[in-house]
Write a structure and sequence with these properties.
five-stranded mixed β-sheet; five-stranded antiparallel β-sheet; 39% helix; elongated
């Protein structure tokens, strides 16, 4: 028994010793850990805080929206709407491969594409996976809580009037940088400056606290164009219908306010929808009224008459012998439709006599003719500031021969844009004063310069009324209740070695009311098909309908009320 008691006493001592060893080891461990904690808190506190912040504090962009584009009355033409973009941190997402199928299904993308994106850009911390996603989709994806998947607020450009104003407003790229039209021309004005702030994120990358605003965003500024969207729509509707009816290759129309030089409407066919990513090709997106040139044909004849009057080579009551309906210049023969005999200047314009204007042009010193044409804007841009605007082509008079002077008189041998041609007609409407055109709304006209005398401009304007009257080439341009002055043009298209016999460009340029002009309009129908291809048949009716509606909408009083009949005017205004 005594031996047994000694054994038990020895075992108790051994257990007590072991217990003391374990407790001592634990206490030593606690002391070491406590010392380490104290060391980290005192000696490494700043380092650890920086490391923590580096993992949870982020500087994020505060996107600034692009300025709105408005028409002259405040109607929105381009708006930036908020959208969400999905982006990933490839290294973080690679850790959570088990969640990839959920992400792939939500975004309706292939696994191969996701793997390729991560493999190609795995060394980056920011990679877009879906730009400009629907906000509801973005919220759905973020709620999945997949590590390494985040969203970012951005803006997307929206164009309420789509193809109606597409050519003048233009488009932006996916980053809202201007690429065409007014979006490009006024990009610096419209573009805002993004802000920045420091935020705290949780482990899923969600912002849980705004820590500091580094830089406030500066929103883009509004741009108010000169366009009147009511007139823009009216012109677009009529031009589109005419292009379809005549199976035209393309078409353009420009409408100018004579009082200010503002462009109230500029439309083209074909057009495109800027709200879709498939925006057609460069040919469809081109603003033909401003960038494309053409030979203006007989729409140049009023300027030839004006130059003759301004130079003193002819008088308002002069008569021109056009017999026998042909005129030989060197080896070239200039023809009229028939022999008009000896006619006055008004008849030269009304009957569109090539022989008559050629004789006048050859009587004017070439330097005088070139100078006045240059001052009218031919060979120069209009001052609109539109990207890609063409100055047209007007060769220096030093390169002119007699045949060039003669054909120039009726619109061959030079090239103009429809907008350029409209600017020149504004000078006739504006009593001989030329002014720069504007695509921005202005409160008062800019600086003007005189090119033609007031008497010359009035005389030519009066002669042009005969074109729209009985016996003229543009009876279809007449508007009940208003005096209209204008000129048709039917131009053969240039081809290799000369001019086509069956391809034409139909034009009409005019102004109203002729007694005190308020509006100038130019219509161009390129390569109309079918039997009708003359400017008076194809382009003049478009001018009539659009001009009638515009005069009504602007409240311009009729200057020929005696032949005003409510029915026809109302129908014309409605189109």
């Amino acid at each position: 028994m005594a031996a047994k008691a000694r054994d038990m006493s020895g075992q108790g001592s051994m257990f007590s010793w072991r217990r003391r060893m374990v407790v001592g080891a634990l206490m030593a461990g606690f002391l070491v850990l406590g010392g380490r904690v104290i060391d980290l808190q005192i000696n490494h506190h700043e380092f650890l805080m920086n490391e923590a912040n580096a993992r949870h504090l982020r500087v994020v962009r505060m996107p600034a929206h692009r300025g709105m584009i408005l028409d002259r009355h405040g109607e929105p033409l381009a708006i930036s709407t908020p959208v969400s973009s999905i982006w990933i941190h490839p290294a973080e997402l690679s850790v959570d491969k088990a969640r990839w199928p959920e992400l792939i299904k939500a975004l309706d993308m292939s696994e191969g594409r996701l793997r390729h994106t991560i493999a190609q850009r795995g060394d980056r911390e920011f990679v877009y996976l879906r730009r400009h996603a629907d906000p509801a989709l973005a919220r759905k994806i973020i709620k999945l809580g997949i590590r390494g998947v985040y969203q970012q607020r951005e803006y997307r450009r929206y164009y309420p009037h789509a193809e109606v104003s597409a050519h003048v407003v233009g488009i932006t790229d996916i980053d809202e940088r201007g690429r065409e039209g007014s979006e490009l021309a006024f990009d610096n004005w419209l573009t805002g400056r993004d802000g920045a702030k420091r935020v705290m994120r949780d482990r899923l990358g969600r912002i849980i606290e705004d820590v500091e605003r580094i830089r406030a965003p500066r929103q883009g500024r509004e741009l108010r164009l000169s366009i009147d969207q009511r007139l823009q729509y009216l012109a677009y509707r009529e031009l589109k219908a005419a292009a379809k009816r005549h199976r035209a290759r393309s078409a353009s129309m420009v409408l100018i306010d004579v009082l200010t030089g503002e462009v109230l409407a500029v439309v083209n066919q074909p057009s495109y929808n800027p709200n879709t990513r498939r925006r057609g090709n460069s040919s469809t997106r081109r603003n033909r009224a401003i960038t494309d040139v053409l030979e203006p044909g007989s729409t140049m004849k009023p300027f030839t008459i004006a130059i003759g009057l301004q130079s003193g080579q002819v008088q308002a009551d002069s008569r021109i012998d056009t017999s026998p309906g042909t005129f030989k210049v060197g080896r070239h023969l200039i023809r009229d439709h028939r022999n008009y005999g000896t006619i006055d200047l008004a008849t030269v314009i009304m009957k569109s006599s090539n022989v008559g204007v050629s004789r006048i042009a050859l009587s004017v010193p070439p330097q005088d003719m070139w100078l006045i044409l240059s001052q009218l804007g031919f060979g120069n841009t209009t001052g609109s500031g539109f990207p890609g605007e063409s100055p047209g082509i007007l060769r220096h008079y030093g390169h002119w021969g007699d045949i060039h002077r003669a054909t120039l008189a009726y619109g061959y041998g030079l090239s103009v844009t429809p907008l350029q041609l409209a600017q020149a007609y504004v000078a006739i409407a504006n009593d001989g004063l030329v002014q720069a055109l504007s695509l921005q709304r202005v409160d008062r006209p800019g600086k003007r310069r005189r090119v033609l005398s007031e008497d010359v401009a009035l005389a030519v304007r009066t002669m042009m009324e005969g074109v729209v009257g009985p016996g003229g080439t543009a009876g279809k341009a007449a508007i009940p209740g208003y005096r209209v002055a204008g000129k048709t043009g039917t131009v053969r298209k240039p081809i290799a070695g000369g001019y086509s016999e069956d391809r034409f460009t139909a034009l009409f340029a005019g102004l109203a009311p002729a007694s005190k002009p308020r509006l100038v309009g130019v219509v161009v129908i390129d390569e109309p098909g079918g039997e009708e291809y003359y400017g008076g048949q194809v382009a003049a009716p478009v001018f009539r309908t659009v001009m009638a509606g515009a005069l009504r909408l602007l409240g311009v009083a009729p200057d020929r009320p005696q032949d005003l009949s409510p029915g026809p005017v109302a129908r014309l205004a409605r189109g």
